[in-house]
Automatic annotation (TrEMBL):
Residues the record lists as 4-aspartylphosphate modifications: D174
Name this protein carries in UniProt: CheY-like chemotaxis protein
Keyword Phosphoprotein: yes
Residues annotated as domain Response regulatory: 124-237
Source superkingdom: Bacteria
Annotated GO biological process: phosphorelay signal transduction system
Keyword Cell membrane: no
UniProt source species: Gluconacetobacter liquefaciens
Keyword list, A-Z: Phosphoprotein
Record InterPro entries: Bact_response_regulator, CheY-like_superfamily, PhyR_sigma2, Sig_transdc_resp-reg_receiver
Length: 244
């Protein structure tokens, strides 16, 4: 593999990890999927797509759905397209090439998937965010997605106490809480007593996606659109599609 191509793939790895983890609902399964895709790319001829999109394509091809999950609200193809266009910010045309379908078909599938998101099981969400205006915006987005707000915490201590009181179905946490501490530490404390899926919100997702430690399965980038939050919460609450 040419050195320049290898360097491009290395730069693309954090985003590939984010996509694979969100798709599978798990850090270990997602990182294994990335590793398998890298092995495939190492022996394949370089295609015309950028390295990042090539990694997305190999991940999408390697991922297999369990037939038992056919009755789920969204199909695996719908989930892939939603994640690629929202979380990974590809255009519909780019996402269609990644999953090997025509753009017109991708457009139709995405429209159906967006409607399907409204049918997701509702849950209560604990918001950990120290900026009041941002916290209010996130509250509105959470309700727009059809969920309930369990509470809003601006510090580590408040987050732990609110989680103890409300037992949220999902945690949406900022990393940097300013003087209030660290969102990751707050989540770690909560998870020792209450298990719930977690979505981390950060302006620098690549810092959380190195593959060198226990890291979140779900990461979205600030600032984010309502649809990005809707898709991330769907994946987190459902745990990703069941796989073979």
């Amino acid at each position: 593999m040419p050195l320049s191509r290898r360097q491009d793939l290395i730069r693309a790895l954090p985003y590939a990890r984010r996509y694979a983890r969100a798709l599978t609902g798990s850090q270990p399964r997602g990182d294994l999927l990335v590793a398998e895709s890298l092995r495939g790319l190492a022996v394949a001829e370089a295609g015309p797509m950028p390295a990042r999109q090539c990694l997305y394509q190999w991940i999408s091809r390697q991922f297999r759905q369990n037939p038992a999950s056919d009755a789920e609200t969204l199909s695996v193809l719908e989930r892939k397209l939603l994640l690629l266009t929202s979380l990974e910010e590809l255009t519909t045309a780019e996402a269609a090439r990644v999953v090997d379908i025509e753009e017109a078909e991708a457009t139709e599938i995405l429209a159906h998937a967006h409607a399907g998101l409204r049918k997701v099981a509702q849950t209560s969400i604990l918001i950990i965010e120290d900026e009041p205006i941002i916290a209010m915006d996130i509250e509105d987005l959470v309700r727009w997605c059809g969920h309930q707000v369990a509470g809003v915490a601006a510090t580590e201590a408040d987050a732990v106490e609110l989680a103890r009181q409300t037992k949220p179905g999902l945690i949406l946490a900022d990393i940097n809480l300013g003087a209030g501490g660290d969102g990751a530490n707050a989540v770690a404390s909560i998870l020792r007593h209450h298990m719930a899926p977690v979505i981390f919100v950060t302006a620098y997702p690549e810092r959380l996606l190195t593959g060198e430690a226990i890291e979140p399965a779900f990461v979205i980038t600030k600032p984010f659109e309502p649809m990005t939050l809707a898709i991330a919460t769907y994946q987190a609450v459902t745990g990703g599609p069941r796989i073979t």
